[in-house]
Design brief:
Length: 427
């Protein structure tokens, strides 16, 4: 995504040090290591567990020490920068489970998320997978699917914005890997920290819910480039140049449900709607194109993301620029032209995707692409109009296939001592 700045609610190593002086060092800060100079615990140290650590532990690296707060106006995992590792999962409530069981589950999940995002062990039966790691900017986000409300007797609280998405011509959807009662997004800058969170969430579900589907994704690791850059996808193309930024004057209006004056139910105040799509990239076909042909499909230079009309990555695209033969510099069916907000009635969405690779088909075709995750205050004004227009003539369509889909209502952040979705489930 275009905005790679550090959000204000991410705690830096310096902030962590001051917090530790007030609340006591977290077990991961105490046990943290930094590369080859890291601390090695012997048998005695290992037996001491979480309760003790050497007096002078080596500090965590900057990647491991990054921390995002669980409590806040909005849930974490929406406005933060792209994370190196991600897991998306949907759960269905078990037969017989209803509102009471769902409330207990969301309370457990919220307690677990709060502890793990602080770099602490899970509250129940921690697996020790991330024992010697820091928070690594872990975020855990929860949402509700269309079917959740019927199963919990909360049909009257279902937002109209959760109505099923329309069918699109590029859809080849696997229903078993789409939708779900509950949705969880996990992101971190360390793969073990992310897996640890996924396992804890899955164990916490217990008898109340079962996994419906789960997907794994990745992005470039922090520090892999000399300076922050917009991410590239598996097609090698810079992806996310025109992402809305929190500094935009209308950012909150486009991305979050307002606290008042909205037609959404009150429990969605400060929340957002997320569309999740597993988009397979037909890389064998794509990679047969020349770089110039690929650029025409996208409408931007592959090297630096600049529009084909000229300039740099952030230069406004000139849709009217043409050559001597009258051909537009940015082709009329180029992906970047079609997706521009000013070409879609101002429709905008905050894209926060992960790439994925799930091996190869028997014929050697890679099962790889994009776990497309986009946020908006109203999917009928964000995702839907853009996707409809893409459906009618996007040059990229012949090189991708939408294989799974989900739409979820993501309520605002939990208050301290509370849990995500509490107003819905206890209101």
């Amino acid at each position: 995504m275009a905005d790679q700045s550090t959000p204000s609610d991410v705690i830096t190593p310096a902030d962590t040090a001051s917090e530790n002086s007030r609340a006591g060092l977290s077990r991961r800060t105490l046990l943290g290591t930094a590369g080859a100079t890291g601390l090695v615990l012997g048998a005695a140290g290992g037996a001491m567990g979480y309760a003790a650590a050497p007096a002078q532990a080596t500090p965590l690296t900057s990647v491991g020490a990054g921390r995002t707060m669980f409590h806040g106006k909005h849930q974490p995992g929406i406005t933060e920068g792209l994370q190196a590792r991600g897991h998306l999962a949907a759960f269905d409530l078990a037969a017989g489970a209803g509102r009471k069981e769902a409330a207990a589950l969301l309370r457990r999940w919220s307690q677990t998320a709060e502890r793990l995002m602080a770099g602490e062990p899970a509250p129940h039966d921690d697996t020790d997978v991330a024992r010697d790691a820091g928070p690594s900017s872990l975020t855990i986000t929860f949402g509700f699917g269309h079917s959740f409300f019927g199963r919990t007797g909360l049909d009257k609280q279902r937002p109209a914005a959760l109505d099923p998405l329309p069918d699109f011509s590029s859809d080849r959807l696997d229903k078993a890997r789409s939708d779900g009662d509950l949705w969880v997004q996990i992101g971190a800058d360390d793969a073990l920290v992310a897996f640890h969170a996924l396992r804890a969430i899955q164990k916490d579900a217990g008898a109340a819910a079962r996994v419906r589907w789960q997907m794994n994704g990745f992005n470039r690791a922090p520090g892999a480039t000399a300076h922050p850059t917009t991410a590239r996808n598996l097609m090698g193309q810079i992806d996310g140049t025109r992402n809305p930024k929190p500094t935009d004057s209308d950012f909150d209006k486009r991305i979050f449900v307002p606290a008042s004056g909205s037609t959404d139910p009150g429990w969605m105040a400060n929340g957002s709607y997320v569309v999740v799509r597993r988009i397979r990239m037909l890389l064998d076909d794509w990679e047969k194109l020349s770089s110039e042909a690929q650029e025409d499909v996208i409408g931007r230079r592959k090297s630096d993301g600049a529009p084909l009309s000229g300039g740099t990555e952030t230069t406004e695209m000139d849709l009217e620029k043409a050559d001597a033969q009258g051909n537009f510099a940015v082709p009329v069916n180029a992906h970047a032209r079609i997706t521009r907000p000013d070409q879609n009635g101002g429709a905008a969405m905050l894209r926060r995707p992960f790439s994925y690779h799930d091996g190869f088909d028997p014929d050697g075709t890679p099962d790889a692409g994009l776990l497309f995750v986009c946020w908006q205050a109203d999917p009928l004004r964000g995702f839907v109009p853009v996707q409809r227009k893409l459906d009618r003539g996007d040059a990229l369509s012949q090189f991708i296939r939408h294989e799974a889909s989900g739409l979820f209502a993501v309520p605002g952040g939990a208050a301290r001592g509370g849990y995500v979705g509490q107003q819905l489930l206890e209101g």
